[in-house]
């Protein structure tokens, strides 16, 4: 009786230890997969192959993590092959995350034929697409220059009872702006506001950039004011098109006023400095251009060749050769440090 109890005790601990090791392995495995990089994907698949030897059996979360890792490094066809394995050989079926991950991967590479085909396969399997699925497809069609298909997918989204979110609507606004229908994009913007769908930074960016390209600077300026009133943290790429527009139109004072507002919220980047230097040069405001140049260097931004040539040329034309020489000397010193 005593021997029986002793054997059972150790058997119990052996099984428990094996189970605990399995849990630890699975936890570390999933953590590894979540940090997949291009050079680690093969290691991830080796871990995947070893799971069963630790008493761990891959579930749909495991496969979805692998799919995500493959798509992150643009191995979309390989991800699609893995998805087929889940469909044919696993005891469980792919879910909406599985399909959407691969569809999104195809959309990011503008492979819309493959994305659409997989979407149809998803629907046939009985898996209901969600807002993320439709948003990926809408954005993919927009980026591929197929606005008609993007609008068609939006209609299909509504038929499936999915409410378009800020990502979907921003993509459609972007699509309208890309084909020159800025007013249609503004109509969607107003629709978002009416439905209390908060705009994102990228919604503002898309519309502001499109308005500037259409030389509708005052409307772009008004959107910047709305952005300032919101809780969104702005970035330089939203301000730059408006600053550039005002510089090119010769309204340097308005451009400078926007820069003052911008500096309250975010830092100027290399493009901002370049726009301002060239803009001030074109208006003959050389002292200010020189000041911006040194401010640019102080911010750790290196001017490109076009900026340097423009500034030097304008300084020479303005009868300021010593300043032009000093600019080149400063650049040489900075490159040497």
Automatic annotation (TrEMBL):
Pfam families found in the cross-reference section: PPR_2 (PF13041)
Keyword Cytoplasm among record annotations: no
Gene3D superfamilies: Tetratricopeptide repeat domain
PROSITE patterns the record matches: PPR
Highest rank taxon of the organism: Eukaryota
Transmembrane segments: 12-31
Keywords: Membrane, Repeat, Transmembrane, Transmembrane helix
InterPro entries: PPR/CCM1_RNA-binding, PPR_rpt, TPR-like_helical_dom_sf
Repeat positions for PPR: 59-94, 95-129, 130-164, 165-199, 200-234, 235-265, 269-303
Full protein name: Pentatricopeptide repeat-containing protein At2g06000-like isoform X2
Native species: Abrus precatorius
């Amino acid at each position: 009786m005593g021997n029986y109890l002793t054997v059972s005790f150790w058997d119990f601990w052996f099984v428990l230890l094996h189970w605990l090791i399995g849990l630890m392995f699975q936890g570390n495995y999933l953590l590894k997969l979540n940090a997949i990089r291009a050079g680690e994907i093969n290691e991830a698949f080796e871990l995947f192959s070893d799971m069963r030897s630790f008493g761990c059996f891959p579930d749909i979360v495991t496969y979805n993590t692998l799919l995500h890792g493959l798509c992150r490094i643009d191995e979309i066809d390989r991800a699609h092959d893995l998805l087929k394995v889940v469909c044919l050989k696993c005891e469980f079926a792919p879910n909406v995350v599985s399909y959407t991950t691969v569809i999104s991967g195809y959309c990011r590479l503008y492979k819309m034929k493959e994305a659409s085909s997989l979407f149809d396969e998803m629907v046939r399997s009985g898996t209901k697409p969600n807002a993320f699925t439709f948003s990926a497809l809408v954005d993919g069609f927009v980026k591929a220059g197929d606005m008609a298909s993007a609008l068609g997918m939006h209609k299909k989204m509504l038929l499936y009872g999915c409410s378009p979110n800020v990502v979907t609507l921003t993509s459609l606004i972007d699509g309208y702006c890309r084909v020159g229908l800025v007013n249609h994009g503004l109509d969607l913007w107003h629709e978002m506001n009416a439905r209390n769908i908060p705009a994102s930074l990228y919604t503002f960016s898309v519309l502001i950039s499109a308005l500037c390209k259409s030389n509708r600077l005052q409307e772009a300026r008004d959107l910047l004011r709305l952005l300032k009133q919101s809780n969104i943290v702005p970035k330089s790429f939203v301000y730059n098109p408006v600053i550039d527009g005002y510089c090119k139109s010769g309204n340097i004072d308005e451009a400078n006023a926007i820069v003052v507002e911008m500096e309250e919220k975010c830092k100027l980047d290399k493009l901002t400095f370049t726009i301002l230097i060239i803009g001030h040069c074109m208006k003959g405001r050389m002292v200010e251009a020189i000041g911006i140049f040194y401010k640019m260097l102080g911010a750790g931004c290196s001017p490109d060749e076009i900026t340097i040539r423009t500034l030097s040329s304008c300084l020479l034309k303005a009868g300021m050769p010593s300043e032009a020489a000093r600019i080149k000397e400063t650049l040489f010193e900075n490159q040497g440090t």
